[in-house]
Amino acid sequence: MRLVLEGVAVDLGGCPIVAEADLVVEPGEFVGLVGPNGCGKSTLLRSIYRALRPAAGLISLDGDDLWRLPAKEAARRVAVVAQESPTDMDFTVKEVVALGRTPHKRPLDRDTGEDHAICRDALDRVGMTGAHQRTYTTLSGGEKQRVLVARALAQRSHLHLLDEPTNHLDVRYQLEILGLVRGLGHSTLAAIHDLNLAAAYCDRLYVMASGRLVASGPPHEVLTPERITEFFGVRAHRWAHPLTGRPILAFDELDAVPAHGSVNGAGP
Question: Which ranges of the chain have pLDDT less than 70?
Answer without folding.
Answer: 84-89, 256-268
